[in-house]
Amino acid sequence: MLELYHNDMSVCAQKVRLILAHKQIEWHSQHLNLRAGEQFKPDFLKLNPKAVIPVLVHDGNIITESNVICYYLEEAFDSHPLMPLELTKRAELREWLTRLDAGLHEHIAVISFCLAFRQQILKRYTSESALEDFLNTIPDPARAILMRDMVINGMSSPRLNIAILAYQKLIKDLATAVENNEWILSTGISLADFAFLPYVERLEQLQMAKMWSEYPQIDAWLTRIRATEAYKVAMLDWHNQNYIELMAQSEVPEL
Ligand SMILES: N[C@@H](CCC(=O)N[C@@H](CS)C(=O)NCC(=O)O)C(=O)O
Questions:
Q1: Are residues 21 and 65 in the same domain?
Q2: CB distance 78 to 92 below 8 Å
Q3: What is the pLDDT of residues 223-238, one digit of tens each?
Q4: Of these four, 32, 100, 123, 221, which has the most CB atoms within 10 Å of its CB?
Q5: What is the pLDDT of residue 21?
Q6: Are 252 and 207 in contact (CB under 8 A)?
Q7: 30 and 144 together in one domain
Q8: Pick from 60, 68, 42: which is nearest to 3 by CA?
Q9: In testing the pocket of ligand 1, which one of 47, 48, 52 has its CB within 8 Å of the most ligand atoms?
Q10: Ligand 1: nearest atom to the Cα of 100
């Protein structure tokens, strides 16, 4: 029995749902409302003291970290494989996924909050003291500092420029990867395509698709991946209109 603690619009949960869908693995949903702070509730902290989703529970075993979950699913279920057989290609795949942990994941949170999601927090905590109380509920001091900066400074946060530069580099590398290939790896569709789709789609939802206006091959890759059944089941069916509408009104920085 598989249970996934996740959130409809969280990129790293979308990534895991895509892999579950592609591999046609049955799972049970435990959906958390992150804006209501359900990730800080004691029962969830027992599963993941880091207070983040996704968390996979498989036959009572708890697995955290979305990349780790992706590799676990690939190793535990041999249906519709998403890792190449060749070792050098596997290394290439791991290098792609590592980029998410080495900054890109945090950078998408910065872009999303500075451009759009901060509005959800400001709407929920309308006075300065209510906002302070909310920031004090964040158990990890580094995360609280980051949240304070994103919510208060928004577009003027210095972290935003750093995050955008990192995504400009990703887009360039992705454009090179899919220039003459259908998928990120020349061997075929893999964990890498499903891992990066949510991040690129998030940029698009935040009105930043002009980042790849010079690279039509990225739109072609998006079209290919969106034609999969996994995209429908794991992304479209979970789209939260409130988030999508908020992101459609994002302030867009100079690119
Ligand atoms: N490195 C972790 C990052 C997990 C993470 O940051 N999850 C976000 C959603 S994408 C979360 O749960 N955020 C909770 C919060 O904002 O308080 C992973 O890849 O699983």
A1: yes
A2: no
A3: 999 999 999 999 999 9
A4: 221
A5: 98
A6: yes
A7: no
A8: 60
A9: 52
A10: 19
